[in-house]
Structures are given as C-alpha cells and as structure tokens.
Amino acid sequence: MKLGFRHYFTSTFIGLCTLCSPAFTSANCPSLTLQETLNSAIEHSLALKQADANIQIKLADCWQAGLRINPELIVEIDNIGGNGGNYGFNAAGPVVAISQILELGNKRSAREKMAAAVVTIAIWDREILKQELLRKVTNLVITSIASTEKIKFLQMANDNATTSLNCIAEKIKNGKANPILLRQTELTLSTSKIMQRKAESDRTSSLRELALLCGYTFSDVDEMLYPFFDFDTPPPLNIYQCALANNPEVAKYRSAVYAAGENYHLQKANAVPDLEITVGIARDNRNRQSSFLLEFNIEIPVFNRNQGNICRSSWESMSASYQLEEIQAKLELACTSLHDQLFRSLDTVNMLHNEALPAVSEILQAYENGCTEGKYEHIDILLAQSRHIELQLQLIDALTEFHQLKTDLHYLCGSCF
Questions:
Q1: How many domains would you assign to the chain?
Q2: Mind listing the pLDDT tens digit for each residue in 193-214?
Q3: CB of 182 within 8 A of CB of 213?
Q4: Among 22, 128, 366, 377, which has the minimal tally of Cβ within 10 Å of its Cβ?
Q5: Residue 136: which CATH number?
Q6: What is the pTM of this model?
C-alpha cells in the first residue's frame, strides 16, 4: 500500500515543505537502490573476506584428509665388517624392500566426509555473517530515511511554532491572548528544536556507519531509494514458521549434527588397526643366492585403544542434536514474538494513516475555510498544523518500527521473502 499522507496538506501547509534543508535534498548525490547498497556492503566486508579465507582453509583440510600414505623404502645390509669369513662384504646380506601401510576400516573415506562436513559448517558461518550484515545495513538505511523525513517535518514544526509565537505575542499586546499560551508555544518550539537536533544526529550517525560498511563517502549515501512509505500486510505466522528452515543458523547446526555423526564413524574406523605390507628382495653374498621378501604386520586389537574417542564422539553427536533442537525452539519463539510486534506496528500505521491523519486534515481544511469566512483566526490554523505535524512524526516512527521489524523477520527466515 502506498502512503499518500502528503496529499493531506492544504495549500498553506504544502508551502511549508519548501523550507526543508537543502543539505538533504541536494541533486548532486547519486541515488542508490537498496540492493546496490547491500551489494556494496558485501563487497567491502572484511568479516566476509575473512570467512571466505576460512572456507579455503577448511577446503585445504579436506584435501589433506584425502591424501594417501606414501610407501617406505627399506634398505638393510647385514653381516658387514666381521671377522674371518664375514670380513668386509663377503658375508653381507643386503635387503631392498618397499613397505606400504594400508588403512583399513575406510579411515580415508571417513576423514574426507568429516572434513567436508566442516567445510559446510564454515560456509554456513559465512552465510550467518552475511545475513546479519544485510539486516544491519537495511535497518541503517531505514533509520537514515526516517531521520531525514523527521528533520523535514521538525523544520516545519519549528517554522510553525515561530509563526505561532509572533501571532500570540501580537494578540497579547492587544489583550486577546493569555501569556501562558505564549510560554507553552515557546516550550513547544524548544522541544521541536531538541528533537530536530536528535534526528540530525541519528541521521549523521547512521550515514557514517553506512559509509563505513559500504565504502561510500557521506554524500554518496545521502539519497537512497527505499519504499519507506509503502506497506503491505505481512504473510500469516505459519508461513514464516515454515520458512524458518531456511535460517542459516538452523542449516549450520544441521551440518554440525552431520559432522558429529561423521566424527563418530571416523573414531570407529580409527579403532581398526592398519595393515603394513613389505615386499622386497634379499641377497646372501656368502652363497650368492637371492630371494623375495614378503612381510605382513598388523596390530593385534586385544584392547580398543580408541574407545575413549568413540565415547566422546557419541556424546558430541547427542550434544549437537540438542543444540539443533534448542536453536529451532529459540527461532520459533523469536519468530512468533517478531510477528506479533509486526502486526501491532501495522495496526498503529493503519490507524494513523487511515483515521488520525484524515481526521486532522479535515479539521485543518475546516479551519482554512473558516478563516476565509472570518469564523477562525490564523492562530487556529497554526495549532491545527502543529497537530498534523505531530501525527506525521508519529507515523514516521511507526513506519520505522514496522520496516525494521519486517527486516528482522525477513532475515530470521533466511531472507526468503
């Protein structure tokens, strides 16, 4: 739904819009879409680059896990340099052999699966960082736009209060107004100026942080294209709950459960002893005879020397499953809470947009018409305009909350909306 609150202004009230600060309406600043801003944030994120490097590290570990054991060359010479018939090399018995360890129990395959699972976890870690970055940048854009809009209306409020002060002062001179009304208007003006300074500070802070995240200068992000004044009814809760499966944290913990299971299989495989095969040739110089050598070596598994690691990996697998259930429960609760807050915020926006603002606009129009007929004074119009501005500021706050809650819910569900 497109908000049309600007159409509520009468000709007098619309004229105040021209008083907006030019610092926030400069045509020299390029307009950026939200997607361009998000892409720039991804490109300039050092945390994501670090996560990319971490993925490459895990891929290298995966490569390393699949490497085979090299064969071993054995050269052995017996009976060298003895006495009598064994003098020199007369009785030497050289042996040249090659030994190879064969990993039994599918250890290599288990290592590769375990390493691949760790790579998947690293990929989801990066996705979590990315989603959090995009959520943060989107909310900063919303804050920046909201602050800019508030500054415009607060400037109108300042001008309105200043004009009201002059009118009331003139009426006091003529004995037609209470001095207390003058004091109240002065307080209203002071409050409006304080709110404007805060809005300017919020805007500067959000733009500065955006510049840091996106790599743009301050003026580059001065005007951003974002449908701040558009709002639609969000999907029902069950749609969001179904989409929670796309949350990267859920995917990460699912990968962790899988990795824990693969680690258990790896530890079971490590309990299987390896077979060492040696093949070679032996020569007896004394008899001038040669023979082949074949040797098998394998550990006798009288004791399972890896049972502690097997037990540990079994409990780690159970722990990972519990962590997955816990994160799913937390996300379910967060989704329900955010959805409730989102609809409460939407109700506030609808009430302000569809009820409060039209009512105040009608009152303002009535004062305008009555003023021309002599029924009302100009001060009555100024007070009605002041109330109109207050409602506009409330609407901006409500829209800010609505869009930020919608963004939080959007990324909670893996940005699938």
A1: 1
A2: 888 899 888 888 888 888 888 8
A3: no
A4: 22
A5: 1.20.1600.10
A6: 0.80
